[in-house]
Amino acid sequence: MRAYLKHPFWQAVGLFVAAFLVVEFVIPALPGSAVVPKSVVLQYMATVLVGILIWVSDDEARWTTFKEPLHDVLIQPRLKVVRTVLLAVVTLMVGCLTYSQVKASVAAPPNLRSIHPAPPSQITFRGKTITLVGLENPLRKQGDIAAHIAEGHRIYYQNCVPCHGDHLDGQGHFASGFNPLPANFQDNGTIAQLTESFVFWRIAKGGPGLPREGTPWNSAMPAWEEFLTEDEIWSVVLFLYDQTGWKPRTWEVSAEGSK
Amino acid sequence: MMILQAVADTARTYRDFPVIGSRAAVWITAEIHLMFAAFVLGVPIFAVVAEGIGIFGKDQRYDRLSKEFTRLLLIAYSATAIWGALLVFMLSTLYQPLWAYLTRIFGPSMWLYAALFLFESFTLYLYYYGWDRWKYGRSKIVHWCLGILLNIWGTIVMFIADSWLTYMMTPPRDITPETSPATIKIWHAIMNHTWMPINIHRLIGNVVFGGAIVGAYASYRFLAARTEEERAHYDWMGYVGNFIAMSALIVLPFAGYWLGREIYQYDQSMGITMMGGFMSWLWVIQAFLIAVLFLTGNYYLWVGMGRIPGSERYRPYTKWLLVVLVIGALVWGTPHTMIADSRELAAMGGSHHPLLGALGVMSAKNTAVNLMILATFLSFLLYRRANIRQVVPWAQTGTRIQGAMFVIAAAIVLFFGIRGYFVEAIVRIGYSVYQVGAVLACIIFVTILDVLMARGAQSLGAIQWGKMPPRSQYALFILAVTFTWLMGLMGFARSGIRQHWHIWQVMQDTTPYAATPALGYAAIMISTCVLIFLSLVGFIFWLGGLAEKSTFVPSTVEAPHVGH
Predict the structure, then answer these.
(1) Does B172 sit behind a cis peptide bond, omega within 30 degrees of 0 on the bond before it?
(2) Is residue B378 part of a domain?
(3) What share of chain A is helix, strand, coil (3-state, %, to 5)?
(4) Nearest chain A Cα distance for residue B189, angstroms
(5) A55 with B319: CB under 8 angstroms?
(6) Which of A35, B398, B452, B550 has a CA between 20 and 30 Å from the CA of residue A99?
(7) Which chain A positions have a beta carbon within 8 Å of B292's beta carbon?
(8) Cβ distance A149 to A241 under 8 Å?
């Protein structure tokens, strides 16, 4: 057993299997984690495999030792049974893999949907042209901010909570019926990465207003400009940032000092 | 009269190219022209540095190496000019409105471009054909200055061409669709937001590319070598090419980051399209390819340590460097928005993984790449020190200081990487400057210390050039192919963010090809360009071997490291 543990070939196999177990089982089991998508598992395992191959082959002695079992199993007469079994197993694996790739499935195929499509420089809101570039939330400089947040709170619970949830985590009662799922505002990859004008644009125009690069267009988010006023949307935006604790992204200042 | 009028009316319209369409025709000619241009701009930088080392280090091998590459340049220049002319014809016949607009603004710079190309060509002829005539004494210095002049012409030519394409991407903000091109001042158009960042990024990129092509050429000749001496020569040449490529690669991400910042500052939505929008998948592929470069470059060095007496002292450390590089590659390649089926999406609560999603943002990526750069630099350091023993009395203290510098740089990178999760985006962006600063400072000070420590060092034996397994040479091939692929890929990202605009928000593309192509189509186009280019380069390599016998110089002296 000790000889196997010290042999580069079995060390490499052990490392590869251990890495697979970590990615497939340990990461999902960690608190607050979830299953790792197959595409990412494949990507991680390919990287690990390259790393292992580099390790076994960057030293001539280790490379020679590593190849020994492979060499033996291919040509040694005493290992004929192993060779036959290996050939059968590899063939079977390739067959199974091919079958799993081509068999009919009811699941929707994965797609490369763009989560943050680039916003237009300006939009039309109920006939009024609003320039998004450099736009800040106007309510931050108007009236009582606490009152605006309270208004946003009321509007959120009236309109948004069924999908985006009580915790603003995209886990509302209706959430499981949608693909794509409602946005999780607690995630550091949604509103935390965006300017308030981007969030305003997404709320105002919803799924129907997604640009072409936002395809496939299948977001169930309504275009809220049909139901809410400009100030009401801005107050919801305020509420989202206040409740989650994220700070909105600020605009880059150009060399000329303009936004 | 009616026919003449019809001709006049259609003279400034688009035309289509048979079978593949006009966009694909321009894409292929522009990309291959650009790849050859990188070849003929990168290799002269390499050649002049090598000739300089030959002159001042009094090592003839570098001089021969430089000449061998200048010979290849002669053929590559013709190829660059042919593809450049093809591009001009394609643009002027297929995209007439755009071509007319650009020539209206940039006409004088185009004349200058042609004139400089002429000067550059004749300087190259003088440089190559005068090699054996101006070989000794002052005339050798004059010859070297010709090489520098060749690079100056080439750099100006590149800067001029860069102004045209950067204008298409980031025209000055006061220029609108209504602005007549006749009223636009040429210098105003040239000095646009991304002109200088692209210039610098391409300049460094060309050095990397030149080094990689040299490495690929050397590996080709190494694998085809028939004698031990020839093998030793091309092994050494491959090492020099890899050294230059990897050294320049270390600073290339910083120049790329500057370019990205300028794009964001010019137009945030353009930046979002590039980094967070539909172009974001290109960055995941880019991360993969750059990880391949780092891993392959380090692999070549580690395999190469097998031919250096004394390197066994450092072998145990390389596996830990590999661990850093693999973890860095895993983090860098982790997508923020993951490709997942509906079951996986439901389990994750969206397309961002609740745990691994944290690795998909810039804080994690910047930290990973900076640590990978530090690990690669450490590999070089170990390689450099492999066959020497320092004799200066403060060698041990110096090594400890070097170690401390690495630890401090890594700590700064990690600190700002982690802190980046807790601050707003605009502050986080600034943190990358501290990370880069720490890494660069570490590289500079550790190198200075190392040079001082190596004074009068005791040799543990000569490097056994040629004693390299063939798999190390395939690593050099992989480097050249990956660099070429990356150029095509990121060139598409840079150009594609204009979307349906010829000139961003000034002149729309109204052809049937205006829609930005899908990533699959783009990948096929880029790979086709890479295949055509590499096939032509392979042909040039073969011609290089055919035209003249190998120029390797049998060496009886101990082959020094680069930089010793």
Answers:
(1) no
(2) yes
(3) 60, 5, 40
(4) 16
(5) yes
(6) A35
(7) 50
(8) no
For A165-193, how does the pLDDT look when each residue is reduced to its tens digit (9 = 90+)?
Answer: 999 999 899 988 887 788 889 887 788 88
Residue at B346 is within a domain = yes
Contacts of A213 in chain B (CB under 8 A): 273, 277-278, 516
- Cβ–Cβ of B347/A35 closer than 8 Å? yes
Is A34 in Cβ contact with B361 (below 8 Å)? no
Task: Name residue B99's amino acid.
Answer: W
Count CB-CB contacts under 10 A for residue B25. Answer: 20
Q: Each residue of A218-235: pLDDT tens digit?
A: 788 999 999 999 999 999
Which tens digit of pLDDT belongs to each residue from B487-540?
999 999 999 888 889 999 899 998 888 888 888 899 999 999 999 999 999 888
pTM exceeding the 0.90 threshold for the entire prediction? no
CB contact (8 A) between residue B354 and residue A254: no
Taking the C-alpha atoms of residue A177 and residue A173, their distance in angstroms, rounded to an integer, is: 9
**B103 found inside a domain:** no
Domain of residue B360, residue span: 310-459
Strand partners, B507: B503
B331 to chain A: nearest residue by CA? A44
**Does residue B328 lie within any of the structural domains?**
yes
Percent of chain B with pLDDT over 70: 95
What residue ranges define each of the domains in chain A, with the CATH number in brackets? 2-102 (no CATH), 122-244 (1.10.760)
Residue with tokens 């990024």: B201
Task: Mark which residues 78-97 of A lie under 8 Å from B by CB.
Answer: none
Q: Are strands B388-389 and B501-503 parallel, antiparallel or unpaired?
A: unpaired
Across the interface, do B352 and A179 touch by the CB < 8 Å criterion? Answer: no
Domain count, chain B: 1
The pairing of strands B458-459 and B507-508 is unpaired
What's the complex ipTM?
A: 0.82
Distance CA B544, CA A232 (A): 72
Quote the CA–CA distance of B441 and B450 in Å, as a whole number. 14
Spatial separation of the C-alpha atoms in residues A43 and A29, rounded to whole Å: 20
Rounded to an integer, what distance in angstroms lies between the CA atom of residue B98 and that of residue B90?
Answer: 12
- Residue B233 identity (one-letter amino acid): H
* Mutation for B interface: A112, A136, A168, most B CBs within 10 A: A112
Of B332, B273, B335, B323, residue with least CA distance to B516:
B273
Quick one: tokens of A10? 């079995």
- Kindly report each contact of residues A104-107 with a partner whose C-beta sits within 8 Å and lies 24 or more positions away, as own/partner: A107/B341, A107/B342, A107/B343
Q: Which residues of B touch A54 (CB under 8 A)?
A: 295, 298-299, 302, 322
